[in-house]
Amino acid sequence: MSIWKLVKLKFGRNVAHFGELGIGMEGTNERVLSDTLFSAWISSYAKLFGKDAATRFLDKFNSQPEPPFRLSSTFIYQGTGENTTYYLPRPLKFPPNYPVGNDLDFIKAYKPLKYLPLDIWQRWYQGSGFSDSEELKAKIKGSANGELFQKGTFEYSKSFEISKVPKIAVDRVTRATNIYQTGFVQYQWEASQKEFEEVESLSGLYFLVHFAEPNLENIFFAVLYFMGSEGIGGERSSGAGQFKVEQTELTKAWKQLLNFKDANHHCLISLFWQHPLPKENLNHASYELQKRGGWLASPVSDGRQLRRKSVQMFTEGSVFSVTPQGQLANVTPDNKSGKFLDHKVYRSGISLSLPIKVEKE
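Above: the chain's sequence. Below: its structure in token form.
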């Protein structure tokens, strides 16, 4: 028996720093990708239960036909209660009935879009498909980064704000100082009227988790609650990245979306990596790749930082005609200096996807 859960990460007034490969400290993403979320969870698991227990748990992902759980990347939600808008990555294929070549202005507005509200996503890719009478008249506006979708009173780019904070670095040897800037993301919040609650989160991040092992659910959330107190992302020593966890019941729309039966393709809502990659995965596929790498804080006594091996992963929104599975990628640093012998390092390419219906080629 498999179980789906939708989880909200509510940051309140707290800021966060989500750096990416190729982006300096001054930049930050507004959300966390699935591999980072997985790594943060495993790290918290190791702090709670020990390194050996974490190693044994990771072995399950490598040895079992179905991993204990699958995580999506995090995406933006906006609003509260029944008025919550959830954003999903736009699939990299046109929906049924899309008027390719018939409306150049609309295509120019449509192509840069990265995210769609849940109801639009479901109607286009699981329902009646694209509707000329409604969607061609929709007020879709493209911001500078192509991530703005306006619908009613909700607007993707207004759910968060990115700012830069100046900081000073001091050289440990020469004591010379250097000023640099760090980018932080902050989500919408307001003072709460409820007793004992400081603020109400009006936007934040959410993700989906699919459990293959139902008895793992309690452990998963216990670790996630601990992770919230520790924080996620960079600059945690400054208090950044702390969040509260809210388990949300799946609405009727979400249940219909997850149980859609008339699908002919699958859309990634996580990163995906597999080696070797089955040839059938690329048949009639439409995808983008992203390089994933970064630094690892070495546990050796000298405290050196080592760079993890980089891997190319399929991004969210990539579309495949078969269900992508994925696996853990071994990104343990090269042991040329003999310094890193403590444990293996993995990056999660285990995928989570949604069933969709697109135009047949």
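The first helix runs from residue 34 to 49.
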